[in-house]
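Narrative of activities, Objective 1.

The group set out to show that a structural description can be obtained from nothing but a protein's sequence at a throughput compatible with the screening campaign. Below is one input-output pair from the validation batch, recorded exactly as produced.
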Amino acid sequence: KILIKNNNILNITSKHLAEEKKEQFEFILKKTGFKIQLYEHVDSILSFLNYKKIKCGLVTGAIRSRVLKSVPELIKYFDTIVAADDEIDGKRIKGKPSPEQWLFAAKNMNMLPKDCMAIENAVLGVRSVKSANIFCAGLETTLKKQQLLNSGADLVFKNQLDLLVYFKDLFKYAL
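Output recorded for this entry:
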Protein backbone atom coordinates (compact mmCIF):
# COMPACT_ATOMS: atom_id res chain seq x y z
CA LYS A 1 0.00 0.00 0.00
CA ILE A 2 2.84 2.36 0.86
CA LEU A 3 4.63 1.62 -2.42
CA ILE A 4 1.47 2.34 -4.41
CA LYS A 5 0.73 5.53 -2.46
CA ASN A 6 4.26 6.92 -2.51
CA ASN A 7 4.60 6.36 -6.24
CA ASN A 8 1.11 7.56 -7.18
CA ILE A 9 0.36 4.26 -8.91
CA LEU A 10 -3.19 4.16 -10.17
CA ASN A 11 -5.52 1.31 -11.08
CA ILE A 12 -3.82 -1.40 -9.02
CA THR A 13 -4.47 -2.70 -5.53
CA SER A 14 -1.80 -3.82 -3.09
CA LYS A 15 -3.31 -7.31 -3.20
CA HIS A 16 -2.98 -7.41 -7.01
CA LEU A 17 0.59 -6.13 -6.80
CA ALA A 18 1.49 -8.83 -4.27
CA GLU A 19 -0.08 -11.49 -6.52
CA GLU A 20 1.86 -10.18 -9.50
CA LYS A 21 5.11 -10.35 -7.52
CA LYS A 22 4.32 -13.96 -6.58
CA GLU A 23 3.55 -14.87 -10.20
CA GLN A 24 6.76 -13.24 -11.44
CA PHE A 25 8.78 -15.15 -8.85
CA GLU A 26 7.18 -18.44 -9.94
CA PHE A 27 7.84 -17.60 -13.59
CA ILE A 28 11.51 -16.87 -12.94
CA LEU A 29 11.88 -20.09 -10.95
CA LYS A 30 10.36 -22.21 -13.71
CA LYS A 31 12.00 -20.56 -16.71
CA THR A 32 15.50 -20.00 -15.48
CA GLY A 33 15.94 -22.55 -12.73
CA PHE A 34 16.71 -19.55 -10.54
CA LYS A 35 18.16 -20.50 -7.21
CA ILE A 36 18.86 -18.19 -4.33
CA GLN A 37 22.57 -17.72 -3.82
CA LEU A 38 23.48 -18.36 -0.19
CA TYR A 39 26.05 -16.33 1.60
CA GLU A 40 29.32 -18.20 1.91
CA HIS A 41 29.57 -20.50 4.98
CA VAL A 42 25.82 -20.53 5.73
CA ASP A 43 25.60 -24.23 4.93
CA SER A 44 28.66 -24.90 7.12
CA ILE A 45 27.13 -23.00 10.03
CA LEU A 46 23.85 -24.90 9.81
CA SER A 47 25.60 -28.23 9.33
CA PHE A 48 27.80 -27.62 12.38
CA LEU A 49 24.86 -26.58 14.59
CA ASN A 50 22.92 -29.61 13.42
CA TYR A 51 25.88 -31.89 14.22
CA LYS A 52 26.07 -30.38 17.71
CA LYS A 53 22.29 -30.90 18.16
CA ILE A 54 21.64 -27.16 18.54
CA LYS A 55 18.05 -26.30 17.68
CA CYS A 56 17.66 -23.89 14.77
CA GLY A 57 14.70 -21.93 13.54
CA LEU A 58 14.18 -19.80 10.47
CA VAL A 59 12.15 -16.61 10.86
CA THR A 60 11.49 -14.95 7.53
CA GLY A 61 9.45 -12.23 5.92
CA ALA A 62 9.03 -14.48 2.88
CA ILE A 63 5.99 -16.68 2.33
CA ARG A 64 6.41 -20.37 3.12
CA SER A 65 6.07 -21.67 -0.44
CA ARG A 66 8.83 -19.33 -1.60
CA VAL A 67 11.15 -20.47 1.20
CA LEU A 68 10.53 -24.14 0.45
CA LYS A 69 11.26 -23.62 -3.25
CA SER A 70 14.20 -21.25 -2.80
CA VAL A 71 16.34 -23.11 -0.29
CA PRO A 72 15.13 -26.73 -0.23
CA GLU A 73 18.57 -28.05 0.73
CA LEU A 74 18.51 -26.06 3.97
CA ILE A 75 15.06 -27.03 5.22
CA LYS A 76 16.41 -30.16 6.93
CA TYR A 77 18.46 -28.02 9.33
CA PHE A 78 15.52 -26.18 10.86
CA ASP A 79 13.44 -27.38 13.78
CA THR A 80 10.88 -24.73 12.90
CA ILE A 81 10.23 -22.29 10.09
CA VAL A 82 8.09 -19.24 10.71
CA ALA A 83 7.06 -17.53 7.47
CA ALA A 84 5.18 -14.34 6.66
CA ASP A 85 1.99 -16.18 5.73
CA ASP A 86 1.83 -18.33 8.87
CA GLU A 87 -1.12 -17.95 11.20
CA ILE A 88 -1.61 -18.05 14.94
CA ASP A 89 -5.17 -18.78 16.04
CA GLY A 90 -6.50 -17.97 12.57
CA LYS A 91 -4.75 -14.61 12.25
CA ARG A 92 -1.76 -13.92 10.03
CA ILE A 93 1.39 -13.64 12.10
CA LYS A 94 2.75 -10.14 12.56
CA GLY A 95 6.04 -9.55 10.78
CA LYS A 96 9.13 -7.63 11.73
CA PRO A 97 9.50 -5.36 13.68
CA SER A 98 6.90 -7.17 15.80
CA PRO A 99 8.35 -9.81 18.15
CA GLU A 100 5.55 -12.24 17.28
CA GLN A 101 7.46 -14.35 14.71
CA TRP A 102 10.42 -14.83 17.05
CA LEU A 103 8.24 -15.71 20.03
CA PHE A 104 6.34 -18.21 17.89
CA ALA A 105 9.59 -19.81 16.71
CA ALA A 106 10.87 -20.13 20.29
CA LYS A 107 7.58 -21.69 21.36
CA ASN A 108 7.68 -24.14 18.44
CA MET A 109 11.11 -25.30 19.61
CA ASN A 110 9.97 -25.52 23.26
CA MET A 111 12.44 -22.83 24.25
CA LEU A 112 12.21 -19.66 26.27
CA PRO A 113 13.19 -16.49 24.39
CA LYS A 114 15.95 -15.81 26.96
CA ASP A 115 17.55 -19.12 25.94
CA CYS A 116 17.60 -18.26 22.23
CA MET A 117 19.98 -16.40 19.97
CA ALA A 118 18.99 -14.82 16.68
CA ILE A 119 21.15 -13.75 13.78
CA GLU A 120 19.99 -10.64 11.92
CA ASN A 121 21.40 -8.34 9.26
CA ALA A 122 18.79 -5.57 9.16
CA VAL A 123 17.55 -2.83 11.46
CA LEU A 124 13.93 -4.06 11.58
CA GLY A 125 15.10 -7.61 12.19
CA VAL A 126 17.35 -6.61 15.09
CA ARG A 127 14.58 -4.51 16.63
CA SER A 128 12.17 -7.40 16.22
CA VAL A 129 14.54 -9.84 17.94
CA LYS A 130 15.27 -7.48 20.82
CA SER A 131 11.58 -6.73 21.36
CA ALA A 132 11.15 -10.49 21.86
CA ASN A 133 13.87 -10.37 24.56
CA ILE A 134 16.17 -12.61 22.51
CA PHE A 135 19.94 -12.21 22.34
CA CYS A 136 20.78 -10.78 18.93
CA ALA A 137 23.93 -11.22 16.87
CA GLY A 138 24.20 -8.82 13.98
CA LEU A 139 25.81 -9.87 10.74
CA GLU A 140 27.44 -7.26 8.50
CA THR A 141 26.03 -8.51 5.20
CA THR A 142 24.01 -5.39 4.42
CA LEU A 143 24.80 -2.91 7.19
CA LYS A 144 27.87 -1.78 9.05
CA LYS A 145 28.65 -2.76 12.65
CA GLN A 146 27.63 0.55 14.20
CA GLN A 147 24.23 0.53 12.48
CA LEU A 148 23.52 -2.95 13.84
CA LEU A 149 24.70 -1.99 17.33
CA ASN A 150 22.59 1.18 17.22
CA SER A 151 19.59 -0.99 16.33
CA GLY A 152 20.17 -3.05 19.47
CA ALA A 153 22.38 -5.96 18.40
CA ASP A 154 24.23 -7.48 21.34
CA LEU A 155 27.29 -8.32 19.26
CA VAL A 156 28.20 -8.09 15.59
CA PHE A 157 30.11 -10.37 13.24
CA LYS A 158 31.91 -9.13 10.14
CA ASN A 159 30.93 -12.19 8.09
CA GLN A 160 29.63 -15.73 8.21
CA LEU A 161 33.08 -17.23 8.69
CA ASP A 162 33.52 -15.21 11.89
CA LEU A 163 30.10 -16.46 13.03
CA LEU A 164 31.09 -20.07 12.28
CA VAL A 165 34.30 -19.67 14.30
CA TYR A 166 32.26 -18.19 17.17
CA PHE A 167 29.86 -21.14 17.17
CA LYS A 168 32.68 -23.68 16.97
CA ASP A 169 34.29 -22.09 20.03
CA LEU A 170 30.99 -21.70 21.89
CA PHE A 171 29.86 -25.29 21.31
CA LYS A 172 33.18 -27.13 21.21
CA TYR A 173 32.21 -29.24 24.23
CA ALA A 174 28.54 -29.70 23.31
CA LEU A 175 27.18 -33.16 22.42
